[in-house]
Design brief:
heterodimer; A: mainly beta; seven-stranded mixed sheet; globular; B: about 120 residues; mainly beta; four-stranded antiparallel sheet
Chain lengths: ~110, ~120
């Protein structure tokens, strides 16, 4: 049972480039989340989804877009990457809004 | 909005000692959940313990226990018989209860405490 899988694990971008981070879960969870973690800080919520075809903004959504076309996948897009988006990105999923969130291993993104 | 404060950026104890990590939070919610997550150098976020606010009994998981004081909005983590493998960043997190059909809410994290277990 793989749980929550994030692709890629590392990426380096130049300012202005675009990319998509993929999160896949095999636990049939309804809820999925994207967080970012910056040095000296805890994780902050970017966007989340409560089910296939739905998305909503979190605490720090600017500069990011998301899509949930399939229940098991939650994509995070950066249309025009900026150095301020250098961070570690975590995806998480849970069965419903009350339960434990299970995290992926994270993606380290550097924007030069 | 909720806030979570961890006032100890770093702590260091000897192996086998007991250590307590502090966490306070601010919320106007009455129903919510509190968590402690461990993040070792591998970067993986690992759930240590979970507390439901409507339960007065403190949660325990083997060597890990919490002291949940709802009125004081305090949620400390006690690690007994500490082991070298406990060395990690520890994050306290808050999540409000979401009623059916009410959408969802993510976790609000503190800034973390770096715990070092010395041999």
């Amino acid at each position: 049972n793989a749980g929550v899988t994030q692709t890629p694990k590392f990426r380096v971008l130049k300012t202005g480039q675009s990319m998509t981070l993929l999160c896949a879960q095999d636990m049939n969870h309804e809820y999925m989340y994207w967080y970012r973690q910056d040095p000296g800080m805890g994780l902050r919520l970017i966007h989340y989804s409560v089910g296939e075809g739905t998305t909503a903004k979190g605490e720090v959504p600017d500069g990011y877009n998301v899509s949930r076309l399939k229940k098991q996948n939650f994509l995070l897009g950066l249309e025009s990457a900026a150095p301020s988006q250098t961070s570690v990105y975590f995806c998480a999923s849970t069965h419903d809004g009350k339960n434990i969130q299970y995290f992926g291993a994270g993606t380290r993104l550097s924007v030069l | 909005a909720q806030t979570v404060t961890q006032s100890q950026p770093e702590m260091s104890v000897q192996e086998a000692e007991t250590v307590t990590l502090s966490c306070t939070y601010d919320t106007s919610e009455n129903n919510y959940y509190l968590f402690w997550y461990k993040q070792p150098p591998s970067r993986q976020m690992i759930l240590v313990i979970r507390q439901e606010a409507y339960k007065q009994q403190n949660a325990t998981e083997n060597r890990f226990s919490v002291n949940f004081q709802k009125a004081a909005k305090s949620f400390s983590l006690k690690i007994s018989d500490s082991q070298l493998g406990d060395t990690a960043m520890y994050f306290c997190a808050f999540m409000k209860h979401v009623y059916s059909g009410g959408g969802a809410d993510g976790l609000t994290f503190g800034k973390g405490t770096h715990l070092i277990i010395q041999p």
